[in-house]
Amino acid sequence: MKHEEMPNKRLCEFLKSNVDSFDPYFSTRVMARVRTAAADQEAWITNLWKTFRRVAVTAALAACILVAHNISTQWQYRSDSNAMEMILGIPPATFATTIQYVGLWL
Amino acid sequence: MKTAVSDTELIRQVLAGDENAFRQIVERYSNRIAAIVTGMLGRGQDADDVGQETFIRLYQSLPKIRGESSLGTYLTRIAINLCVDAIRKKWRWRYWFWMEDSEEILPPELTIENGAAIESGERKEIVHRALQALDPKHRAVVVLRMIEGYSTKETAEFLHIPMGTVLSRLSRAQERLRVMLKPWVEE
Questions:
Q1: Which residue in A10, A20, A34 is closest to B56 by CB distance?
Q2: Contact A22 B48 (CB under 8 A)
Q3: Which of B7, B100, B116, B119 has the most neighbouring CB atoms within 10 Å?
Q4: pLDDT the model gives residue A95
């Protein structure tokens, strides 16, 4: 075990008995900051929720418009394809379309 | 006779929404945190701000406290980390905005005349100036080891340094303090 050097006792006592304390009403200042911090956090969560709601509503509206557009434009000539494919605007997965897409990428 | 409520009970009350319980925690530990913070940073607004921030951090982390260490130790750790950050920021600021008046950079020297009888306020001033004259690394060891009374091992853990470094810093700091405070601390 390492040697534990004991600090000078008188020096310790002198330092301990003469250290500073905070200015009066320290606890009141802390409590005021605690309340402010709690209020700030609440406001931040509220703002985040409001922003999310705005984005979510806009995204939902955009999705609805896209679905309506897909259905209206592909209704006549894709009556044979899957409903989900039509709603999402996905081309029918046939051998010919696959070759066509692979050819496009290459 | 009124018995003191335990820290665990106070934490439980704070988590249940009792604001007054947190005030009790602040009042219970403010002197201890003041000794650390003013010892490390000196008097003034910086020390008060760091003291407040210490308790704010505690308040925010109360739900996560699992009782592995005492509340005092937990607070000491927060205070030490915040003080180290504050000192780093201060030195960085001084490095970038180096002023021609270099005297401001130097630690205040102890120039109080040796007097036999001194008031309590003066003694505090002497201790304050002696601590500020030390290098921040040495000051941290003095605050934890000599003022707060933590062991060498605990001090080493708080400061993330080896025990041997704590011992050498303590020895050097004591040497300086002995010289500076000789008239008031007789061997």
A1: A34
A2: yes
A3: B7
A4: 81
